[in-house]
Amino acid sequence: RQMNADRPVTVQDLAAMRDRGEPIVMVTAYDANAAGLADAAGIPVLLVGDSLGMVVLGHDTTIPVTLDDMIHHAGAVVRGTGRALVVVDLPFGSTQGGPADALHSAVRVLKETGAAAVKLEGGRRAAETVRTLVEAGIPVMGHVGLTPQSVHAFGGYRVQGRGDGAVEALEADVAALGEAGAFAIVLEAVPTVVGRSVAAASSVPVIGIGAGPDVHGQVLVWHDLLGLGEGPHPRFVKAYDDLRGRTIAALRAFASEVRDGTYPGPEHGYGA
User: Fold this and answer.
1) Which of 95, 131, 259, 260 shows the greatest Cβ crowding within 10 Å of its Cβ?
2) 139 closest CA partner among 91, 101, 90, 172
């Protein structure tokens, strides 16, 4: 079925998009302004990613992000959109205590933000947790491949899915998440051939980030795709603008006009 542009996007819509071969577009968002802009652009899925730890809060990894951080930002994103499906990451420490711990965290997210779904990292080891949440009526998006909350276990941000048995392991992870009831799965930082194989074997939509073109959709981080960040980027990042450069130029222009007395001009003042 075609998606009605006047109603909110649902998890069922993503399955329908996959079935008819329509690529799923997802971007991260961290505030109401970004959510409104994404809505205006017709983006169907917004991920309130724990990447906010790095791109918003200034941390080096996602590890320090708290559940309260996620709820604070997710609430703003939900208030800023009238249409997109909002998915919220369960951060490190909010699920490690097992399914009951994850359920408590997920219930807080949905009750306190109004978001539609949560996302959690891990393959087969997370399947029991996914099943618990889904049985409680909470839609869950999975995340396999490079899972940033496990960056220390991986020894850094490394491409996954290489080596003997790696593809079979990822396919088993995705199968376990699908069987547990996940409505979609993010697949991060794997060779293109692995992305193709995993997506073809999956029973649910696979949304890639650095997983090649042969998956069911793509996601990028807001700051990366808009060119707001600095420093080296992963190979898969494409910047569609240079908002960092343009923002610095605008700020410099403002500062210059204040210093030379050009701003404010007569047109910026109020009459008596």
Assistant:
1) 95
2) 90
Which pair of tokens denotes residue 199? Answer: 């997506």
CB crowding 4-41: b at 16 or more within 10 Å, else e: eeeeebbbebbbebbeeebebbbbbbbbbebbbbbbee
145 backbone dihedrals φ, ψ, rounded to 5°:
85, -130
Closest CA to 65 of 40, 95, 26, 87: 95
pLDDT in the model for residue 226: 97
Choosing from 121, 135, 188, 267, which is the catalytic residue? 188
Q: Residues 211, 188: contact at Cβ < 8 Å?
A: yes
In the chain, DSSP assigns E strands to 24-28, 45-48, 85-89, 117-119, 140-145, 184-188, 206-209, 217-220
Residue 85: phi and psi, rounded to 5, are -75, 120
**Please, are residues 50 and 70 in contact by the beta-carbon 8 Å criterion?**
yes
Going by C-alpha positions, the residue among 221, 185, 175 that lies closest to residue 206 is 185
pLDDT one-digit tens code per residue, 75-118 = 999 999 999 999 999 999 999 889 999 999 999 999 999 999 99
168 is catalytic: no
> Could you identify the residue written with the tokens 């978001």?
115
Q: Residue 2 carries which DSSP code?
A: P
